[in-house]
Design brief:
By secondary structure, the chain is of the alpha+beta class. It has two domains: 96 residues, no CATH class; 213 residues, Porin (Beta Barrel), CATH 2.40.160. The strands form three sheets. Strands 5-6-7-10-11-13-14-15 form an eight-stranded antiparallel β-barrel. A four-stranded antiparallel β-sheet has the order 1-2-3-4. A two-stranded antiparallel sheet has the order 8-9. β1 and β2 form a beta hairpin. It is rod-shaped and about 115 Å long.
Amino acid sequence: MKHVAVILLLGTLSTQVMAQTDTVNLKRGTTIMKIGNMTIIKPNQPDSSKTDTLKIGAGSLIIVGKGIAEGVNKLGKAIEGIDIKKIAETASDVLKKKKPKKVSTNWLVYDIGFAGYNDNTNYATAAAQAFIRPAGSVPASKGDFALRTSRVSNFNLWFFMQRVSIIESVLNLKYGLGIESNNYFFKTGITYVDDIAVYTTRGGVNELDKNKLVANYLTVPVMLNINTNPIKGKRGFQFSAGVSGGYLSSARQKKKGPLGTDKTKSNFNLEQFKLSYVAELGLGPVKLYGSVASSPMHQYGLEQVPYTLGLRFSN
């Protein structure tokens, strides 16, 4: 507002300058222009040695120099050419564009990363030993369920992710809905048997080309989001943390070897519901995400707590 007021003032003064120039002329060819307490005296002789005199106040300050009157006239004309209304409208539009939205939605967000689990099973217990049949001469151990961690094994598709402002778009509530797909690639030939009481049988290392357990969850994440620069919107630095609830929609084991491919669809003994702690960190459309389940994924026999880590891509 201060800048607009200054421009309006200069426009008014320039009008006064132009009026004085057109109406006040002395007999000796001298032009006198008055701007408030300032007086500009300009001889009209073509002699370049002549100078203009600028008096400020009651003659207490006098500035003598060439081209003073001409410079003031040019300044006045330049100010007259400025469209104050257009500048104000443009500034208003810019401010509206920069104002962050209270609600923003991302559609079809997807994740690519790694799925694994922390095996906290106490293999000295009878329940853990009984989960592998027949027991044989070698007791069951973590090695029976060792994973290949070098393969991309987590794929998530979020139908939408929505963010709602709580405090000035800096603190937000973020939630969504999607499908999580966790693939656990075994190094061994361990096989799940879908019986009245689910159990597993052993297989040798490198016996199969591919051996994986797949668990798909319909998931709803709910997080608190901090956006350090709301003006930049989705391009600003952001951090989110919260929980997600997942429902086991399907599961299967897929094995591929010299005799072909075998698929067994079943929930086996996986827990039907999964509660996880989730977080994401990022700058712009690409984010780093992670999750850790609050409890083991099996109902009995094993205590393997799943986790995921990877990159999240959003528009």
